[in-house]
Amino acid sequence: MPPETDPDPRKIIHIDMDAFYASVEQRDDPSLRGRPIAVGGSRERGVVAAASYEARAYGVRSAMPSVTARRRCPDIVFVKPRFEVYRAVSEEIRAIFAAHTAIIEPVALDEAYLDVTENLQGLPSATAVARAIRAEILERTGLVASAGVSYNKFLAKVASDHRKPDALFVIPPAMGPAFVETLAIGRFHGVGPVTEARMRALGIETGRDLRERSLEELTAHFGSAAPYYHAVARGMDARPVRAHRVRKSIGAETTFGDDTADRSVLAERLQPMIDRVWQASVAKGVRGRTVTLKLKLSDFALMTRARSLAEPVGDRAGLERLALALLDEALPLRRSARLIGLSLSGLSSNNLGDPVQLGLGI
């Protein structure tokens, strides 16, 4: 059935953080703001893992050799990646998603699809959900996300990239097929550089050109990928958003009404987090070997401290001892904290010690 006549189209959002790694580094280090930076590599060797928009203006891209990046942008600053921080920020962003839908398909630390055909907040439209999520991400992390809203995954992905950075773009069902017709073939998600070159050699430059080719012709040239190209050229994509429901940790956090760097206050505010994590552990019949403390400072910088044990934490008192020890490791703070969190990972069943997979309570 053509998407424009589908009586009950899905509502899909694609969220893509803008220059995620580089933006985290610029957020946490004010001296990097407004400057061209590359995360990863060095001035002499290695490759760029991510580039700020200031660096992209010079043609610097991810996976580019560092020497090429420096040649294109002599003033570029190379920053060592901090993947533990990026993962912590990603988990915080996914918690925002979970407040709106249980159907979340993470693609990477900085990217995810959400099916909000039914949203948990009762907002009137997928666009309203996307707008709320972008605002919450900015408020809680200080980072900017772009969002695409449409009736399938392909068009939601295209939409999120259409006007980046800091964009919200919507492709409704009535607009989808016509929008795809004008799309350059290189902007089709799933068409990489090699396939793009092959398509251009066949005279396929746009979505309109692709739509004019029969499934049989596409199959002759592109094999098993042909049905996908044939469908998306018509604005169609039947792939569902596949929720990842494996829980790998139990966590709790709280944002303060007033920032503080005082150890006694932080220790007091940590107690309810210890209670919540331990109670969840008991309720689910699991124990964990790794305790992680998270602190978000007043400038939104994240600090994490973790400790792994040979055996799972045995009781609430043991969890408290570890949590307070991690807090002491983090002190003194260079700025006051606005959030504290605690998580337990490396989960195993309480009785047998076997690894378990838990459904996310979202």
Describe this entry's structure for a reader.
There is one protein chain. The protein is of the alpha+beta class and 362 residues long. It folds into three domains: 9-172, Reverse transcriptase/Diguanylate cyclase domain (Alpha-Beta Plaits, 2-Layer Sandwich); 176-232, DNA polymerase, domain 1 (Orthogonal Bundle); 246-359, DNA polymerase, Y-family, little finger domain (Dna Ligase, domain 1), CATH 3.30.1490.100. It has helices at residues 20-28, 53-56, 66-72, 83-98, 126-141, 153-162, 176-181, 193-201, 207-211, 215-222, 226-232, 263-284, 316-330, and strands spanning 12-17, 37-39, 50-51, 77-79, 104-108, 111-115, 145-150, 168-171, 246-247, 249-260, 286-297, 302-308, 337-349, 358-359. The strands form four sheets. It has a five-stranded mixed β-sheet with strand order 5-6-1-7-8. The protein has a four-stranded antiparallel β-sheet with strand order 10-13-11-12, sandwiched between helices. Strands 3-2-4 form a three-stranded mixed β-sheet. The chain is globular, with a radius of gyration of 23 Å. The two termini are 32 Å apart.
Unreliable stretches: 1-5, 351-362
| Sequence of strands across the biggest β-sheet | 5-6-1-7-8
Form type: globular
Task: Give the rounded overall mean pLDDT.
Answer: 90
Q: What is the succession of H and E elements? A: EHEEHHEHEEHEHEHHHHHEEHEEHEE
